[in-house]
Design goal:
The complex is a heterodimer. Chain A has helices spanning about 20-25, 30-35, 65-70, 90-95, 100-105, 115-120, 140-145, 150-160, 165-175, 185-190, 205-235, 240-250, 250-265, 270-285, 295-315; strands spanning about 35-40, 200. Chain A is an all-alpha fold. Chain A has 2 domains: about 5-210, no CATH class; about 235-315. A two-stranded antiparallel sheet of chain A has the order 1-2. In chain A, helix 12 (about 240-250) crosses helix 15 and helix 13 crosses helix 14. By secondary structure, chain B is mostly helical. Chain B is flat and about 80 Å long. Chain B has 14 helices and 5 strands. The N and C termini of chain B lie far apart (about 80 Å). The longest helix of chain B has about 30 residues, at about 235-265. Chain B has a domain at about 255-305. In chain B, a hairpin with a 4-residue loop joins strand 2 and strand 3. The chains are: A mainly alpha, B mainly alpha. The interface of A and B includes residues 131, 153 and 161 of A.
Chain lengths: ~325, ~300
């Protein structure tokens, strides 16, 4: 693989996989290593954009269930020679939760469109029929009616079916992903298409997004820590705060508990129970945003601000 | 998560989210389950209900249940579709998919009532004039135009995420139905003329016709030398007599068997298995042999009559 000057590895040993350097630093390949990779010709499986360790890069990807799901993943290191090597386990960890999506949307360029190295990367999926679209086929107008992730799905599908459109489709998919924050799918595409000629991988964008996510996460952690510290000052039991954060983050459960407590309040006799119910009832007076079941940072921010109000309320609660 | 849902709206939201996830993961069997659960909720929003119909149709399409998929697509109302439908399927896609599936699976009556004369679906077809022409030309037996449009749309639809894997099958179904409809009124057809009508070559047409004959879709013979297709007519009169004769013979045999059994019982002609033996061994007991013989004689007389 020939990469341009931007992707040269600082201090790297010639011929050594770049992931080794990245692994040593304990993070994904930074922009200093591979900020913008343009592959002009496919040669070997090792690539500048290949997954580094990424242990602290993207907190969303490194969930505890990762390794369990990684076994059946199409992004498994064994199915992608580009991922094989010392960083195979790291990639498993990275894409564990993503494996079902990756299995449902295999990135499989047809063999005529790619070089031998590229078809090796996709794991022998090159036996598909090459579809030739009509002369009037325009990719942009074809995708114009769609929104969201379906655009990327369709582009990946087109890339796997049509050799004449594959390069453009994959590049459009990469560009489309850059309008989102889906660095996991971007990395998946980068690794699956590492040998594909003429594609431009913007690793700098991915690093930037991952760094932003990490910073956001750290900020939230710090805020939570500070709230915990303030909580000790006002002498509010810590488990109660955890419960409150949880309840505000998931308003559906909160509503259910409030409904339950409003019926059970007369039965509560001891002070802690009364305090809990009082806290919950005070929370009910706040206008809670109607969220879905999923966790997202905005809801946590809202919840933390609400917890701050709640702490003020709790400070005046006797006992 | 189901335990945390306390209101019907929560159940609906949860099922819709799960269905959306299944669609993204292309897990279509689970998608159908969640769609069915969401549709059972009371006070379901009309837009959401239409979206769920689209998802269910996509699910049936992926499972190759084309007729059910076509019916679900045709139930969708254009004016009630939510804006978020573009995240899964475009409005133009509904027109394309439903038309193709209907032409491949529906008979002429259903095609007329549910597609061409359906005011709700006409709104979809107005967004895709080519598909409207396609359906009309098929219904009006303008097969040349129909096949020309089909050949025009198929290459691009092969690149469609949802129907790309099915378009060749559907196109073959439509072509076969058109061939059958074309040939049905005739007893003999010139294949050169037929190939012109279908905008194809004689060789390709002959191959398609051979497949239809082998599958039993049409009853015909191909005269390859003269390039003619002859219908093989069966003699309805002869086959009817043959059937009635076999029915009468079968009835006579059954009646004889019944009479024999009745007479055997009446004359105490029974077979008893010995103790400790497998049965059928010893013990024919002719208890009233003369009576049995008389009855057997009368039975033969009955046959003679």
């Amino acid at each position: 693989m020939d990469v341009d000057a931007q992707s040269a590895h600082a201090g790297g040993v010639a011929g050594a996989p770049p992931s080794a350097e990245a692994g040593a630093s304990g993070s994904i390949p930074s922009s200093a290593h591979a900020s913008s990779v343009t592959i002009s010709h496919a040669s070997t499986g090792a690539h500048a954009s290949g997954g580094g360790k990424g242990a602290s890069s993207n907190a969303m990807d490194t969930d505890s269930h990762a390794e369990k799901h990684a076994a059946g993943s199409s992004t498994d290191a064994s199915s992608h020679p580009a991922q094989s090597g010392s960083n195979g386990n790291a990639n498993k960890k990275l894409y564990g939760a993503f494996s079902r999506y990756a299995a449902a949307h295999p990135i499989a360029p047809i063999s005529s469109a790619t070089s031998s190295a590229a078809s090796a990367v996709v794991g022998g999926h090159g036996s598909k029929i090459d579809v030739k679209p009509s002369e009037s086929f325009d990719l942009k107008s074809f995708l114009a009616p769609y929104e969201g992730i379906t655009i990327v799905d369709r582009l990946i599908y087109i890339g796997g079916r049509c050799s004449s459109l594959a390069g453009r489709a994959y590049q459009m998919a990469l560009d489309e992903l850059k309008t989102t924050e889906n660095t996991t799918l971007y990395r998946h595409l980068v690794e699956a298409l590492s040998g594909f000629p003429g594609l431009h991988f913007d690793m700098q964008w991915m690093d930037m997004k991952n760094a932003q996510a990490a910073q956001h996460f750290e900020r939230l952690e710090l805020e939570l820590s500070s709230y915990k510290a303030n909580l000790i000052k006002v002498r509010i039991p810590l488990p109660l705060l955890y419960e409150a954060v949880f309840l505000v983050t998931f308003p559906m459960i909160l509503c259910m508990l409030l409904h339950f407590d409003s019926r059970c309040q007369p039965k509560c006799v001891n002070e802690p129970r009364k305090l809990t119910i009082s806290l919950r009832l005070r929370l009910s007076g706040l206008s809670l945003p109607r969220t879905t079941f999923g966790w997202h940072p905005e809801s946590l921010e809202t919840s933390i601000s609400l917890v701050e109000i709640m702490v003020q309320h709790c400070g005046r609660i006797p006992g | 998560m189901r335990d945390y849902c306390s209101a019907p709206a929560h159940h609906t939201d949860m099922n819709v989210c799960q269905a959306r996830t299944c669609l993204a993961l292309q897990s279509f069997s689970q998608l159908l389950t969640h769609v069915a659960r969401a549709e059972q909720q009371p006070d379901l929003d009309v837009g959401l209900a239409n979206q769920l119909k689209c998802w269910a149709a996509l699910s049936y399409l992926s499972e190759r249940k084309y007729k059910v998929a076509a019916r679900r697509f045709l139930e969708v109302r254009l004016d009630k579709l939510p804006a978020s439908i573009n995240q899964s399927i475009a409005v133009n896609d509904i027109a394309k998919y439903a038309t193709l599936l209907a032409l491949a699976e529906f008979d002429r009556t259903e095609l007329k009532t549910k597609v061409l004369s359906n005011p709700d679906f006409t709104l979809f077809l107005e967004k895709e004039p080519l598909m409207l022409d396609f359906a009309k030309s098929f219904y009006e037996s303008q097969y040349g135009k129909c096949m020309s449009i089909l050949n025009q749309i198929v290459p691009d639809l092969r690149l469609d995420l949802r129907i790309g894997d099915h378009i060749d099958t559907l196109a073959n179904h439509i072509r076969a139905r058109a061939l059958i409809q074309y040939f049905t009124p005739f007893s003999s057809v010139d294949m050169v003329e037929m190939a012109k009508a279908f905008d194809t070559s004689v060789t390709s047409l002959e191959k398609d016709l051979a497949e239809l004959i082998v599958s039993g879709a049409i009853s015909a013979r191909i005269d390859s030398h003269n390039k003619r297709l002859h219908a093989t007519e069966s003699d309805q009169r002869y086959s009817t007599f043959e059937k009635s004769y076999h029915a009468g013979d079968s009835f006579r045999q059954q009646s004889m068997a019944m009479l024999l059994r009745v007479n055997l019982i009446r004359n105490n002609f029974v077979v008893k298995g010995g103790k400790g033996q497998g049965g059928g061994g010893p013990g024919f007991e002719f208890m009233d042999m003369p009576g049995f013989a008389m009855n057997l004689m009368s039975m033969r007389g009955h046959k003679g009559r």
